[in-house]
Amino acid sequence: MQRSENIQVALRFRPLNVRESTKKDPEVWEISGDTTYLKPSWSERLMDSRKISISKAYTYNHCFSSQVSNEQVYQQTSRKVVEASLQGYNGTIIAYGQTGSGKTYTMMGSDGAELDKFYDKSFDNSESVKAKGIIILALEDLLKLVDSNKSKSCYLSCSYLEIYNEQIYDLLGEKDKITDTLIMQEEKGIGFYVRGLTEHVINSISDVEKLIKKGESNRHYAATAMNHHSSRSHTIFRVYVTSVSINTIAYDIGENITTESLLNFVDLAGSERVSSLQEAINPLETAVRFRVSRSPRETSKIRSSSTRRSIDTFVNEGKHINVSLFYLCQVISKLSQKHIIPDAHIPYRNSGLTKLLSTSLGGNALTCIICTATSTLSQFELTLSTLRFGGIAGSIQNVVKANVHSDKTNELLLSYQKDIEELRLKLSAYENEPRVVVVENEGVDATIGTDECDIRKILEERIKMLTGVLFNKRKIDDEPQAKELWSEGAGDLIVDTKLVGSKKLNDSLNTSADFALIRMKEMHKEKDKQQHYIEELEQKLQYLTDSKHNLTNDLKKSLQISQTETGKKLSYKQQLYKAQDQLAEKQKILQQTLESKDKEIKLLQDRLSLVENFVGLEKLSDTDLEFMERLYYQGLDMVKNVRFQKKYVKEIESLKSIIDKSSKNQENPSKTSEKDQPSILRGSILQISN
Ligand SMILES: Nc1ncnc2c1ncn2[C@@H]1O[C@H](COP(=O)(O)OP(=O)(O)OP(=O)(O)O)[C@@H](O)[C@H]1O
């Protein structure tokens, strides 16, 4: 079952070094609980002088002051990640921070961390003399847990790699191959892995110490051979944890639970600003200048010498570190926005570091980032950038899932374990009483008194036979009765750490064990392949389930849209029907009005014809008759008026002509007599004279 887990972030301040103390470099950050604050007396001043807006408080899962030990840091941050690895959870612990802030000290302890490189002064801190780092503390814990857990067989192995200027080196490889670069590959289902990286069995803490020592010595050797600064590379110490819990009830057919996980301990190279680079370069350049002043001829020689090369190398390293850390920040920043843009592309492929950390960042791993910083004013900007990085990283969610497999055919494994146990008993019996040893022969119980050589021979035969039965599948395929015993992948599960670690076994046992180990690795690969195939199928199934889910959602949406549209259509239809009804109603009313008007017209026409013909007047009501009477009188009056008007107009016309004539007669009076005047005019004239 998978679950989401936020990346855990812890902040750790280192104590001031001698130089900082002597220079009285003030501490501007302080810690309270899981929060670090900018001291109030500094916040205003810094904001004004740096012209930047600064968040005054940063909260993380844990905040550790400079007094806290590696052991305490381990207990609170990494222990649960380490423990979970035995349940099959991948885990990653990353140390991030500016150069000289204590990343290596945290991961490797005081032995690993160099003395303060730039200042060449050590810390006045008693713990720094012999503090164990998180890697050792984690493996001590793991080995203890493995030892105390009797129901599980566990197998631990490790690799140690370095990324320097984007090239990958195997720190546990053979010394003559240490400068060979390794290639990173990607396989579907597995992700990115380093081809040819050596893997080494861990049986005890001294194995780990030896391997780390070898890694560090290879690192220094490579640093000298390739002229690079060992602290200016990223290192990853990887621990592969395989556990098998076996159901041993009466050696019955039971179920094996196998868990596999990978623990990454990452010590990143420190980021630095240009001024710090300059600070480191200056002494080198001063040396060049000093020599120049003494001997000009030496100048060209020195310029092309190792000093010049050191400066170039130093700048080049810085460039690569900053670029790969920039890509790391980019990945972190994109992942932190996943809740806003779930399909956002995460640029893991930009650098080797992000490729290798792709499982740990946003993938299947419990991840813990320990941000190391310095609380002094001189490191203010770099600390601020580390604090911001931690703040963003803390919001990232990984989807973790235990890598657990179950296998039902464990009888072979059980019988193998039983035989190993018997062999071990016999061996210890032989060690304790070298002269009297009892060895059981194959299938038949027999007591054989024998010397050391014989016993070794018998044991060797026995181991050979068991190894053959277990690991040589081809041989077993030819033997029908043995075939039934064969359990695919069983070899992967069988690693008896005590057996592998025993110094008492002779060379032939080692050869058999080597053979078994090789076979086991082959089968491990085969099982991995099958596992990847299953994971691919699971992914496809997930993809199909997602597609189905998406399709169902799309269908639901379409259905909703079509339902809304149908609803709208229905309402439009209803509105249309209503409008049609209203129109029909109006048409009806209009029709009725027209009809009634027609009736009225007809009635009037009828009346008119009655009036015109004077027939049927008796049928009319009194009111109608009265109305008609009025109409007639009015008409009569009108006729009279018109006639009078006409007559009057004529009179006026004649009067006008008379007036014209009389005015002419006045000029000549004898020509007009009174009787020639019209009567109306005569009356008028009389009225006027009266
Ligand atoms: N918590 C601590 N207590 C005591 N000493 C410390 C602590 N942290 C760091 N130091 C000392 O500080 C110095 C620098 O630390 P360290 O080498 O771990 O830094 P770094 O971050 O790994 O640097 P770089 O990025 O350059 O590799 C070392 O001398 C180391 O011993």
Automatic annotation (TrEMBL):
Binding site for ATP: G97, Q98, T99, G100, S101, G102, K103, T104
Record InterPro entries: Kinesin-like_fam, Kinesin_motor_dom, Kinesin_motor_dom_sf, P-loop_NTPase
Disordered: region residues: 660-690
Protein name: Kinesin motor domain-containing protein
GO BP field: microtubule-based movement
Protein family (similarity comment): Belongs to the TRAFAC class myosin-kinesin ATPase superfamily. Kinesin family.
Coiled-coil ranges (or none): 520-554
GO molecular function: ATP binding; microtubule binding; microtubule motor activity
Taxonomy of the source species: Eukaryota, Sar, Alveolata, Ciliophora, Postciliodesmatophora
Pfam families in the cross-refs: Kinesin
SUPFAM superfamilies: P-loop containing nucleoside triphosphate hydrolases
Organism: Stentor coeruleus
Keywords: ATP-binding, Coiled coil, Motor protein, Nucleotide-binding
ATP-binding recorded as keyword: yes
Kinesin motor domain segment(s): 6-396
